[in-house]
Amino acid sequence: MNTQANQFSIKQWLHFGWRSFLASKTISILFSSLFCLIGGILYWLLLNVDAALVIIPFIAGFFLIAPLLIIGFQQAAAVLQQGKKPAFSDLIKIKGENNQGIWFLVFILCLCYFIWITDALVIYGLYFGVEPIPLNESFFTNPELRDSIISYLFHSGLVGIVMAIIGFSLGVFAIPLIIHQQMGFVNAVTFGVKKVFSHKWLMLKWACTLVSIMAFTLIVALPLLVIVLPILGYASYAVYAQIIEKLDIRKTV
């Protein structure tokens, strides 16, 4: 097991994602700009109603629906691997006849996202009521507010971690299996989850890499999402290609 895991490299996956992005940067930026625009509008709306703390659950919940956003990049990466140039339609249209499982997975992950946001808002209400909390120096100078914020982040974070694990385990392999191998939903999820746990330490490192990169982007440098999202989307195909299809991603793109 350890010998097999050693041949997989997160650095290679990210490098594959970067090369794939460069090979299709126009359509990739155009596609990811849609999500960046939505995120920017959401940030603006929440900040304008002094709901800065509510942004955090929405950011954390992004990791639940992120697997759905990479469906298009999975398809485009497969086209690139064949030595062809992907079109914008490869990013927005789910191909194949047996893609009902994708829509069911969309439903499950969106349901998890809804549960997470609802629970986070309930926890927010328990600590702060319905009053807005402005983003100012009181975050740090008011001991009572600071303790409430720490407790709020801790308890809401516990719920978020559980939901994120579910979303990651369901999506990381099941989505590409349905797309590329036209597997049924049950078989794809069962096989995909088994693969996650058979490479649990590698998948844990990959998940931590995704969380670190996306968290930094969403919190500190939101405009970079137009680049980061395609790179991680294409890298997710490299994970599938190496572990499931045993392809040498160094010789592609």
From TrEMBL:
It comes from the Bacteria. The chain crosses the membrane at residues 21-46, 52-80, 101-129, 149-175, 204-232. The keyword Transmembrane applies. It holds the Pfam family DUF2189. Coiled coil: none annotated. Keywords: Membrane, Transmembrane, Transmembrane helix. This is DUF2189 domain-containing protein. It comes from Litorilituus lipolyticus.
